[in-house]
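Holo prediction. Input below; ligand is glycyl-adenosine-5'-phosphate.
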Amino acid sequence: MASYPDVMEKLVSLSKRRGFVFQSSEIYGGLGSVWDYGPLGIELKRNLQERWWHAMVRSRDDIEGLDSAILMHPRVWEASGHVGGFVDPLVDCKTCKGRFRADRLQDAQCLKKPSRKPGEHSECQLTEPRQFNLMFKTHIGPVEDTSAVIYLRPETAQGSYVNFLNVQQASRQKVPFGIAQIGKAFRNEITPGNFIFRTREFEQMEMQFFVEPGTDMEWFETWKAARMDWHRSLGLDPDRLRFHQHGPGELAHYARAAFDIEYDFGGTLGPQEVEGIHNRGDFDLAKHQEFSGKRLEYVDQAANKRYIPFVIETACGPNRTLLALLVNAYREEAVPGEQEGRTVMGFHPAVAPIKAGVFPLTKKEGQPEMADRIAADLRKRFPVFYDDAAAIGRRYRRQDEAGTPFGITVDSDSAKNDDVTIRFRDDMGQIRVGTSRVAEVIAAYIASDHATADSKLAVRP
Ligand code: GAP
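Structure of the complex:
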């Protein structure tokens, strides 16, 4: 793979300035590795999640949606292996009070200056590694004794397993079929960081596909390919996407086979997992059957047999995928004839938070009123930003930074001819379009993969 530049620091600053991502509780000094999504960030995240939901649930008849609770019966996490095994080895430094993963000391930085790896300063005093459970514990009800301990879920998957029969029977699905969820998950990560890459509160978009044993590897391959196609459809550079196969030492306790989809974030972070695809065998349903005492078998009446299905899981993180979209979109470029260059967030139009900026060229000749009417009309279909402040070049630049693919400008000819200019973010080219066709033309470009003026789309004024 090529080596890509490190844009993380620039992204953190752009995200705050433009309203993609803010640090949680910033006015109190912030809360470590917890982030809030601002006006542009939430639109981007919703677009991502809606595309996933459409691809996984609405466009198929063999996957059902579910929204299970974050709080679950504590036995769930015993059955799943999380109480006993969802641990990282932790070491503390008695001198600098830093806390590190014992198996990742090579990638960590001691808190003392000049910064080195933990253990490399003469004063470093590292403790023996101890096992640290990543689940957040809390108490349910008013009594804080051990019988009231529950956990914030570290993954959405278990909600789908414990509801396997509820969903199958309510929807009258036959194996093979899937259950999909989007929801929050929590992990008390020892070494979170890299902006929103690894955080303690995050979201997951997970799908559990229940199949007959023996057909599992075929389905595994099908889902691997489908999920890679989905990431490409977001406009992520295909050269920066790749599979990483888990070797025997890397496989999670539940997995028979696992591949990650990795995106190359550039800089020191490099290629990292954005999604995991796992063949979980019958591990989860068998464990829940054992711990709950309830049968979790599928009865195949046509073939007159019953079995515990195997599960193929696709587990994607929207926060990480959103970070990949930010990294992928960020570019700085020179503008011919201008001294200052521009920063562009070149999102695929379908995921861009705002689809169009609407600008009256001047505040005269009824241009603001006409622009306002156009913006109101477009808002019925797309998120739109109306801006009449500052020189037109500055207004274009502001929308370039927000990743808005189209700019609609009302000028002195607009009232006479009942038309406007559509300016394209990526090549800054322009076309003239009749006012009544603006929404239709923009919708056609959003649906296409080439939102530039010279893409010769078969939509003409
Ligand atoms: N149910 C399987 C499971 O949870 P995982 O690989 O631990 O598998 C799936 O998580 C996805 O969730 C990851 O690929 C990643 O995108 C996201 N994810 C996991 N931990 C995360 C964290 N601490 N911060 C942000 N995203 C995380």
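Residues 155, 157, 187, 189, 198-199, 202, 204, 206, 273-276, 313, 315-317, 319-320 surround glycyl-adenosine-5'-phosphate (CB under 6 Å). That is the main takeaway for now.
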